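Hi support team,

I'm opening this ticket because the web form for multi-chain structure prediction keeps timing out on my end. I have pasted the exact lines I submitted so you can reproduce it. The total is 576 residues across two entries, so I didn't expect it to be a heavy job. Is there a limit I'm missing, or should I split the entries? Thanks in advance, R.K.
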Amino acid sequence: MSRPWCMVVLAVLIVMLVVALTPYLWLIMTSLKSRLDALADHPVWLFTPTFEHYPKIFIDKGYLPLLMNSAVVATGSTLISLVVGVPAAYVFARHDFPGKEDLFFFFLTTRMAPPISVVVPMFLMFTAVGLIDTRLSVILAHSTFNLSLVVWMMRGFFADIPREIDEAAQMDGHTRAGMFLHVLMPLAAPGMAATAVLCFILSWNEFLYAFILVAFEGWTLTVGIPGLVTPHGTLWGQVAAVAVVATIPIVVFTFLVQRHLVRGLTFGAVKG
Amino acid sequence: MSRSKAGGGILDRGVGVLFLTPSVGLLVVLLLGPFVYMVAVSFTDLNFALPGHDGSFVGFDNYRHLMQDDPVFWSSFRTTMVFVFGVVSVEFVLGFTLALLLFHYIQRRRVVLTLLLIPMMLAPVAVGLMWKLMLQDEFGVLAYYLRAIGLLGPQTSLLGDYHLVLPTVMAIDVWEWTPFVTLVVLAGLLALPREPFEAAIMDGAGPWRVFRDITVPLLRPIIALVLLLRGIDAFKEFDKVFILTGGGPGTATELLSIYTWRVNFRQWDLGYGAVCAFMVYLVVLILCAVFYKAVYWTEESQKS
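Hello R.K., no limit was hit. The queue was backed up. Here is the completed structure from your submission:
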């Protein structure tokens, strides 16, 4: 490879990285700028950071519960999806029964279901049973897509465990259920951790279900963002602060599960 | 494939049913239930905004309305198609190129890749917000620089101009999702066998021949997968466009999902809204069936 060509490739990559990251950096900077710097008639890149927006929006304006709601909803839907989905994934990986692949396809379509189509009747149904305006309604709604993610990913992780381990465990006198709990689950634990983090991310980032199903008390951070953007007089420092708090955990998690992202985002179709 | 005999058939089946029932049950209640309900409501005149429209049966009236006198739906359908085909093709070309660059020229690509992935991992609402911030007329940083180099007139606004707004929103989607194509294509490239490439190079094939005759055919399942997944997701797009433009100005960026939202939750016309929701569902289900075939295709080709 000739040297100038390498420099060109390197330059292209650097430009790509700058383009990919600058908007996010600008958001973080905006959350740390005084109103004067944020609204200056030319872009301000160097400034004295201020942390005033964070307490103002989270304490004075009462947005702290939104952070709590996001955490409760994401944790809740992750837990439900794991508890319900991991055993199902095990069955898909180890048992054969007629119609198995068709049932698996059903799980896939649930992940693909367009939220806007699901949320309309769900809104009416939750209203009918009195679940509307509760965090539980959002947890259940998020479980629809997270459950299929768990089944898809964990099927692959269970399939990666050699079948000889099953046979050895049965020799040791484990029952099917006992083997699943005491032998296979621990072996699949790293995959399960990655799956859990992905579920958490999807639920934490979700907007439409939470937006439709709950009023202010149940708002998650993502729902809190659009309401703060008004045609005139938006307090950009404060919205940016909410958006930063809503995104920082995700950036950290992305680094944690990077190795498993491909599998998670392609429904196990690509191993990565 | 060897099946272990120990454990007993009946007990086996018992565990299988016990393990599967909760997940199937949850999905039936939370997805099939609303689906059936949606189809049922689509045959009624349920409307929360008009008195007396409390859900009496109206037959196919709503469907007739959709086919015959709702030009807004169909213009929204066109907008969605432009959006989907536009963003998916650009993301594919850019993402594929980037994956090839990373594959061939970068050894320690893990950190670079993770940094590149950040746009698609952030909440779409936050993505919409940060671009809205940068495109603000009075003080937006991007608007400022575009004006400074003369690409944007002093009075034009990228999110306010009827003709510029859709390309702008599409460009933001490209920014957000190109890394996805890169991630998956790169994983596909790394999983390819080396032998065909070595053989081709031995035979004296140039890089372009190798790419066209070996890389692309071998990657075809991955390519199909990426295009379909992106297509389905782009078709469902809501969050980002909702915060960026709310579907406006006028209906310039009113995607089907946003139109469906407006009919249901602004006009409160739930009967007709159910028909719109059903249409969105239908398109996604068709794409899903194609996806399913493509995934099988992937598995078959990996076996051979």
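A quick check on our side: DSSP finds twelve helices and no strands in chain B. Let us know if the file doesn't open in your viewer.
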